[in-house]
Amino acid sequence: MQKIEDITNGRMIDVAFDAVGIKPTLRACVDSLDVDGKAVSVGLSSQDIDAGPFLDFNLHRKQVLGHLGYKSQDIAMLAEMLSYHRLDLSESISKVIPLSEVKSGIEELESHQGNPIRILVKP
Known about the structure:
Elements: H1 2-7, E1 13-18, H2 23-31, E2 33-41, H3 54-60, E3 63-66, H4 72-83, E4 95-98, H5 102-111, E5 119-122
Parallel strand pairs: 1-2, 2-3, 4-5
């Protein structure tokens, strides 16, 4: 948090996005907020969340919001961009598995075995 304080001259930030959805990342988002700040969680996880002391939310009027921020047309646009090689997601794909291994893929994501980012299922 010190780096954020240094960059913002102690003001902190107005909006922070958590793209992971686990306790440490959500907590870091909340801790980086200024008064009236909003933490938006777009990461999906089966973990319980811990956003910090309740008093911090009251005294500093902080908010945590959940967001599932895509629509079907967004997926279509991303698919088109991928097909024309205008978007490279290769660094964010940990592995590709067959449909028959989907259960083990979910378990791997939940346990963070091998620190996966994204596992694709190939039908």
